[in-house]
Amino acid sequence: MSSRRPPERSIRIRSPQPRSINFSDTPVKASSHSHQPPNIVEAMRPAIKIELWNWKESYETDTKNIYRTHDDLPIDQFLRECSLYDENLAEWKELKQITRDAQRAQSRVAENSLYEPLCSIIKEIFDYFDEWQDLHPRWVKETHKKLMNHKEETNVDYFIQNGEGEPLTSVTAKTAPDLSIMGGGPYLSGREVDVDTPQYAHCISPLEVKTEATLNKDKVLLQVAMYARQCFIQQPHRRYVPTVVLTESRAHVHVYDRSGVLRLTPAIDIHPDAVAFVRTIIGISTVFGGSKKHNEYEAPFDHNVQWVADTDYPQIQVYNQWTSEKDDKESDSEDFDGSSEASDWDSEAPEKEPEGSEEEEEEPDDSGEEPEESNAEHEESDAEIEHLGEVPANLTQLSEELDQDPEYDYSTTTFLTLNLYDVTNMRFVRRTVTGRGTVCWDAVDAETGQAVIIKDSWRASRRTAEWKLLMRTKDMDGVGQMIAFEDRSQSSIVHFRHFICYGFPRSPHDRIFSRIVLQAYGQSIRYFDSKLHLLYAFRDAIAGHRNLWMSGILHRDVSIDNVLLGQDGANDNNRGVLIDFDMAIKVDRVRKPSHHLVRTGTRAFQSVSVLNASLWGEYTPPQDHLDDLESFFYVLAWICLKHNGPHSDSVTSAFLDTWEAPNAHVCAGAKSNFLMAPSVALQQYFDNPIFRTLLMSLAKLCRGHLADKSELAGNRQASPALIDVHKKAQAIHHDAFLSCVDEAIEKQKKETEDWVHPPIRSPVTPPAKSVKRVSKKSDLNRVTRGGSSKNKRRVNRSNDDDDDGPGPSKRSKALTE
């Protein structure tokens, strides 16, 4: 592997300007990211509906504002020369003829009659404008009969099981957009692309075709969301997915991104407003920004992620912003020392909640019923307000302000080092449309060969950046260590939406992209090698949490995939590591958390108090270190109930099914019962005096903490501030937990045997992939038509967040959302 690095570049870093926007703490949010594999595609529809329910927005605009940056293209000339368009009648000939024929026959237009003429129009657009633009290879395909594989859990293949849980039949989840704009080149793949075998990995924009008579706007929005979700999953560097729903006369523009789905209204009348239609097709089909001045921050793909010819994984460029100067500056700043989370914005920000932030009614679905809560992993949303219509007027700013980038200051220039990393594996991809969109890559430094983990995520604009907290935890034992970071405030959802629709206003639901590089650690703690290995990792991760708490940071998202095994040969304090600070807060922050909708992390590991927050309402005690310690207990219990030895396949557990119940109160009741008898239903490997005693001891501590919080809420007493809890508790409760674990470790060290139950299936360890360096540019753009099978891009079916899949080599869900 070559050690040549690109030269250092001078990059202007612009500091954020204050904003007077006030938010409530983030509530629980349903998502389509689930630990349970869907056996059929239809099973995902309810989850996606709930995920997007409060995050769909219609924005009214003039069609001339849609993809306005492509105005410099000779679209009028194209329409004059195009044989498919009648400029005098202002109509697409074949489409209009289909409509006239249906009217004469007094019948409806058939949807399948629209595929070919629409496909022909798009092909004509590509053929004409490719010579005007230096673009990647792109083409349009009729895919209504060509199902494209989904990528879910560890494998796209699922099993229909009999009553005893044995697999009977393999089922592959697949969907087929009516038309698909596909592409190749270094921003999409390092392999040659077979254009006759469409895959979501190469899909630039999925298109759906309906007729004016059959179009249901809400249903088609969810249908296309299925396709957009797969684009996000199979293209981990996706920023947003633009698409159109086409009829015989109109084009409905939708944009799916981490803030939800944006629907532009009114729809484009594709016949008289053919210029806007052509401009839109060009816009949704490019991986770049504008037509001539390509702006990487407006593109639907991250241009710092590029594939080299004949490789399965990309190279990632990181412009490291972590300098010693920034380290000192951030460590001394008001925001960084925890005095006020609002200091990122206006110090005089109003304390009241945004209008409409409390208990607004939900919009009914097509059946007239409100959606039920999803049986899925929960994550934060940005505020306790629904995002169903226009942005509140007091938060709206003119589009020109976006062009001026007012939130950045060009007065200072920082010299950054460009680090180049070769990706070796996809560690984790969050399988949702909205939210943080976390992606984790295993990689090595192209120059030094150092193994790292690269984490991409989209934080709510109001939230403190994870890298700020990671700077504060530098050299802290038991906590993941950051090597570099890149925070791209200009890569925000609002900027993308403004690029697509000129004049789109600012939004309180904006999200900002950031990339952090961390030291590489082991896999999830579930991949332990022995009982002692498990206990050491568990102990050091708790000690790491203790270090965080004593430094004034509360993690709030302890889960089985946020506790990693330490590196081989790690010292006694780093055999287990706590990672993922997306939800972490400083204990002395000014803003008060919302009590009736407490935002936490992974449902299966939430504490009973957090689950009861909606029941206890305003008297809910603050989420604190006791909730995190209870989550640690559930991590250990999860392993003891699901894994019958090192690297064994997970086993179905009735107890654990209820821990992921969609109803928080059902989940809370199940966990309360489990705290009373935690040693039942253990796997044989853990059903011994050491682990039974450990679980019962930890459960007893958790019961005491729960009783105290229940009494506080039951007496309807005012909740103490988190900082007061911190000052009073210090490390008392952590030390009690650690004492129980240390006792178990001492007992386990005296054991001479570590009985191992043979796994149900042998762990699957894929062969190591070779990483090639950049060669000729021409090699990056090869596209084959129906080439041999060995040249066809194969979908990588391994994924990362699976409790029931094969061995540990590629299943770790580290650094999750």
Automatic annotation (TrEMBL):
Compositional bias per record (Polar residues), positions renumbered to this chain: 22-37
One Pfam family it belongs to: Pkinase_fungal
Compositional bias ranges of the Basic and acidic residues kind: 1-11
Regions of compositional bias (Acidic residues) in chain numbering: 330-348, 356-383
Gene Ontology terms for molecular function: protein kinase activity
Region of interest: Disordered: 1-37, 322-384, 750-817
InterPro entries linked: Kinase-like_dom_sf, Pkinase_fungal, Tyr_kinase_AS
Record domain Fungal-type protein kinase: where: 197-286, 424-640
Xref: PANTHER family: FUNK1 11, FUNK1 6
Protein name: Fungal-type protein kinase domain-containing protein
